[in-house]
Structures are given as C-alpha cells and as structure tokens.
Amino acid sequence: MIKRGIKNYFVCLKYFFTPLGTLFLGIIIGFSVFIPIAASAFNGMAEEINRVITEISIEPDKLFERLWICITELDWGNNASGALETMLSREWLELTLHKSINSLFGGDYTIYAQQINDAVNVAVAQIAAGVIIIALCAVASAVAGYFLVKFLIRRTIAKRALWKFLLVTLADCTAVVLLFILNVWLTALWVPSIVFSSLISFLSLGGMSLLEAYAVHAAGKVKFKEIVTLKNLGLLILTNIIICLLWFALVLIVTLILNEIAGYIIGLVLLEIAGIVIGMNAESFVKDYVEKRSEKREEVQTAEAA
Fold first, then answer.
1. Which of 33, 47, 218, 257 has the largest CB neighbor count within 10 A?
2. What rounded mean pLDDT belongs to the chain?
C-alpha cells in the first residue's frame, strides 16, 4: 500500500500545471479588474488634490511612479513574504501616498491636511476593494482548479460511477461535520483534548475511507475482513503521513531555490494534489486488490478447466 500511495502521488504530479494554470488565470482576471480601479483611484485623488491645492498640478503618472519606487525599495530579495504583507497593509499605503504627495508638492501643505487625508482615504479604499477582488478571483480559481484536478486524478487512480460518487460525498460531508462538532465540543471542555480528538478524527477518517472503498469497489467480490483490518488502516495512515512529508520536502526545496512567495503558490498546488491523492489512496488500494484477486481467481479456474 505504501509503495502504491507514493507512486500515486508522483504520477499525479503530472497534473501540476492544471491547478497552477487555473490559479494564475484567476489572478490575471483579478488584475484586469484591479488595474482600472487603481488607475481611477489615482486619477480621482490627483484631481481632488489639484482642486484643493490650486498652486500645483499633480499628475497621476508621477504619483504612481513615486509609489512604484517605494514598492521596489521593500526587501523583496530576502523577505518577499514580509514585503508583500507590508505592501498590502493599509497603513503602509496611506503613509506612502502621503510621502509621494509631499515629494511632488515640495512644500508645507499642513493647512490642506484634512482635504488631502480625505482624498487619500478614498483612494486607499478603492485600491483595497481592488485587492479584495484579486483575492476572490484567486480563491475561486483555486477551488475550480482543485475540482478539475480531482476529476483528472480520479480518472487516473480510482474511477467510480456517478451515483457512488454522490453517495460517498454525502457520507464524507456528514462525517467531517460530525467530527468537527465533536472536536469543538471536546476542546471547549478541555483545550488539551484537541490533540487526542484530532488523532481520533485522523484514525476515524482513515477507517471510513477503507469502509467507503470496500463498499464502492469490493462489496460482494472479496470478504470484508480482507480489506478493513488494523494492518491496512495502519499502512494507509503511514502512507498518507509519508505523502505529507514529501509535500513538505518539495515545498522547502522550492522555497530555498526561489523564494517564499513561490513556495506558497507552488506549495498550495502540491498540497491540493497531495490532499486529493490521500483521499483516494484507500480506493486505489482496494481497487487494485480486487483486480488482482479476480485475475488470480480466473487463473485458477483456467488451470482447473485445463
């Protein structure tokens, strides 16, 4: 089972570019909406400042150029995730816009502080809305990529009929909800119990995956006790732990070679594939076991007939 599970993970890495592609498509769509919003925010802020301070004329392009310089000054080389977090913070954006305005104005605009603050706040709110749109598009594309690659992986390692898929999905959702409620209840009673409840949940989900795999692929073909055993449950859990460790090792390698942001993005894609394979390992094992038993039975029958 361990060998098959690890093989499944590496074989399914061929679908790596499917969720990655859908994720970047969502980000591109998000930016296609964000850019006009940001441009409108800068134009509106510049027009309001020019209306308030009649002695100067601030061009939106110059304002954006100053902002871009401040963005490039962040530590993207050694701390990319920290730089991204800083850039997306409202406080940094407000401070940077004020610095940019000050550098373009080149004088004291204290008497206009309130009007300029209002203009900056409006622009920041619009930009923040654009960032939220990018995030929503990224999440939606990640979810779409997950279900698409899950469909492709299922065709590769564990096909099953639609009605069986719906039945098992309903059972999975019910089990997850019940275990979640149990974990919350036990944690509320005694916080350290989360360690034990999480372990019980992990074992329960592993056992349930074996039961589901037997019901879908082996019922009426092999005996129940051949599939659902403590040995198989232990091997299944060990296999899934190994896959998690492989995922962590791959993410660490990518992060060391590239940077933290690349590690996050590629790690998310690899985690999707790992999670899907872990969810189907039991079915893959049972399906393979049943096929081998059927082949062996046919060989025996052929030998007896001869």
1. 218
2. 81
Residue 223 pLDDT greater than 80, yes or no: yes
Which three-class secondary structure string do you get for 107-162? CCCHHHHHHHHHHHHHHHHHHHHHHHHHHHHHHHHHHHHHHHHHHHHHHHHCCCCH
Amino acid at site 275: G
pLDDT at residue 187, as a whole number:
72
What distance in Å separates the CA atoms of residue 222 and residue 113, rounded to the nearest whole number?
79
**Helices 193-213 + 230-257 axis angle, to 10:** 110
DSSP letter string, 232-300: HHHHHHHHHHHHHHHHHHHHHHHHHHS-HHHHHHHHHHHHHHHHHHHHHHHHHHHHHHHHHHHHHHHHH
State the residue for tokens 């198989």: 232
Q: Rounded to the nearest 5 degrees, what angle is found at the Cα of 286, between the Cα atoms of 283 and 291?
A: 120
Give ∠ CA 153-155-158 in degrees, rounded to 5: 85
Q: What does the alpha-carbon distance between residue 91 and residue 63 come to, in Å, rounded to a whole number?
A: 18
pTM, two decimal places: 0.74
Dihedral sign for Cα atoms in the order 41, 44, 48, 51: positive
Among 105, 102, 120, residue whose Cα is nearest residue 45: 120
What is the pLDDT, as a whole number, of residue 55? 62
Alpha-carbon distance of 303 to 285, in angstroms, equals 27
* HSE of 76, CA atoms in CB hemisphere, 13 A: 9
Give the burial class of 285: count Cβ atoms within 10 A of its Cβ; 0-12 exposed, 13-18 middle, 19 or more buried: buried
Cβ neighbours of residue 110 under 8 Å, at least 6 residues apart?
A: none
> How far apart (Å, rounded) are the C-alpha atoms in residues 63 and 74?
18
As given in the structure block, the two tokens for residue 82 are 């920290």
**Predicted pLDDT of residue 27:** 92
